[in-house]
Amino acid sequence: MASVLVVGETAADGSLTKLSTEVATLGRSLAEASSGTASGIVAGGAEAVAELARFVPMVTRLRGVPADASSTVRAGALAEPTSSADVVLLPASPDGRDLAGALSALTGRGILANATAARWDDGGPVTTHSVFGGKLITEAAFVDGRGIVTIRPNAVIAEPLGKPGTTTERAATAVPESAVRIVGHEEASTGAAQIDDARIIVAGGRGVGGPDGFTLVQEIADALGGAVGATRAAVDSGWIAYSQQIGQTGKIVKPALYLALGISGAIQHKVGMQTAETIVAVNRDPDAPIAEFADVFVAGDLFEVGRALLTELRSRSG
Known about the structure:
This protein is an alpha/beta fold and 318 residues long. It has 8 helices and 15 strands.
């Protein structure tokens, strides 16, 4: 019987992040598999606590931690309550990774970082990781079954409880001083639709040829009611913003439809979109790697195929 503790992460507006709901769902399944208990803790406001309680049976709000506290300060406040849990789960977000590292230093617990999946086996969690730029998939476990795990986005689908869990409050026993102070948050200035939760993504790669090529990608995405994504090569070339990058060094997405235009399918990109329900790829090279894992592969010029697709979509909507 293991105790699994989910550390909830709050967004800039005080709400619970979407990734935290996914981590909570996974934590609940690990606890059930071990015949143990799942609980959550939030060093933040009541809104995030209530949201997390929709996914785990018991949630504690830790009072006395400033809203603008750095990860080091929050780790100091969380070290004592997290040290008693067998497994501590956190989002593998920038803030979550910082917090996990600080908690590890304070508690002496090991970390299994950036897990893409987790299951319970032989007295502890066994996690799945994509390593060496996505070229290998490995599994890892703690020697004694106890430690900290960070979970990447879209590892699981968030599933709330049938009935919300209970919430309690407690004062933080230790809130250390810090020379680092967060003075504000600024959203990225982009008008593009967010790809994180998009059900349809139309993505372009090096094959689109330049920023003008993404005009067609955007038009198809608009016709489908989706968002625009891109490979690292397209982002590094300055054709599209980094916020739209998908892959090992970008975002991991899980749409219902992923339409890949001019994307070869290198492993670094594959790890960011391979869990899409349906993958449709257009590439003039019939031997492109993406042909091996796409559900539908069209060997042809992406502009000819893309314009024909756009014409058909517009005729149907009319």
